[in-house]
Specification:
Strand content: 25-35%
Structural class: alpha+beta
Distance between the termini: 14 Å
Largest sheet: 6 strands, mixed
Number of helices: 6
Shape: globular
Order of helices and strands: EEEHHEHEEEEHEEEHEEEEEHEE
Radius of gyration: 19 Å
Helix content: 10-25%
């Protein structure tokens, strides 16, 4: 039996209160601190913007060209203002960007993630401020091959942006026949996907906190019609029945699959997720069954 939820009916995980979040850094989890003891040349302030290079937390071998492509292709086109609100709350369901939110480069090697650091329910911010922060991060820290965190770029001082390296284990598969509708379907899935950093036990049996396999569907869920699906599971051939991970780690993998495969109209999957690398998550096309 697959535990599933439908985007358009939004049968979803319990709503949570809007609270300040801890910004997850893989493999560790820590809160960015712009006052870390780093060389003055590794910080830059501009109209309240503070950028801190920190290779230990955000990646020592940052793919600077991948990050430049990410900023150019995904942030520069953004216009006007956007709303940000905690993921899993009523405000988050209405926001353009439920937080945390993640953008990934086409090759999966660079990620930009935005987090809320205050208890504000909803933040409205000019999207150009995020682009400017990312450009400063590129200029200041990418030449050092170090990841970074930016704070103070938004008018409420309630957001943090990280630029980090990522090592995807992604394989692309057959083309998706839902193309070009996959983009809107996936965005609906991504907006509702859980992404908190609390450690969880995925699998079955005693001690499991998240039952697998787990599936989320998006699209027009009509029997006999095709839909977009995200399937999280422990592969049937594995001898393991549980794995320790977090929804943030799964969300990061899903984002990489979309960036590397879904965005060009292909299905795909990521493997090696979790403490022992047991979990896989797949972006696929399914035919909705008769209920």
């Amino acid at each position: 039996m697959i535990l599933s939820c439908s985007i358009f009916s939004l049968i979803w995980f319990p709503l949570i209160q809007a609270t300040p979040v801890t910004i997850p850094i893989s493999p560790a989890i820590q809160q960015p601190n712009p006052n870390n003891d780093v060389a003055p040349s590794m910080k830059e302030s501009l109209n309240g913007l503070a950028v801190t290079c920190n290779g230990t937390a955000y990646g020592e071998k940052l793919a600077s060209l991948s990050c430049a492509q990410l900023v150019r292709d995904q942030l520069q086109p953004l216009k006007g203002s956007g709303t940000f609100a905690p993921r899993g709350t009523p405000d988050g369901q209405r926001a353009r960007y439920p937080t945390p939110w993640r953008w990934v480069s086409d090759d999966g090697l660079c990620a930009l993630s935005i987090f809320q650091t205050s208890s504000r329910r909803t933040i409205t911010e000019n999207l150009s401020a995020i682009r400017v922060a990312a450009e400063v991060m590129l200029r200041q820290c990418a030449p050092l091959k170090q990841g970074s965190v930016a704070m103070g770029f938004d008018s409420t001082d309630s957001l943090a942006l990280t630029m980090s390296s990522y090592a995807p284990r992604v394989t692309c598969l057959a083309p998706l026949t839902l193309w070009p509708h996959t983009a809107s379907y996936f965005r609906a899935l991504a907006r509702a996907f859980p992404a908190h950093s609390t450690p969880r036990v995925f699998g079955s049996g005693p001690g499991a906190t998240e039952t697998l396999p787990w599936e989320m569907k998006g699209g027009y869920l009509i029997p006999g019609k095709r839909a977009l699906s995200i399937l999280l599971q422990i592969p049937p051939f594995s001898e393991a029945y549980q794995e320790k991970s977090s929804w943030w780690e799964v969300y990061a993998a899903v984002s990489a699959v979309w960036a590397m495969c879904g965005r060009v109209g292909k299905a795909g999957y990521a493997e090696g997720i979790g403490k022992n690398g047991v979990l896989t998550v797949e972006l696929r096309e399914i035919i909705e069954k008769q209920r």
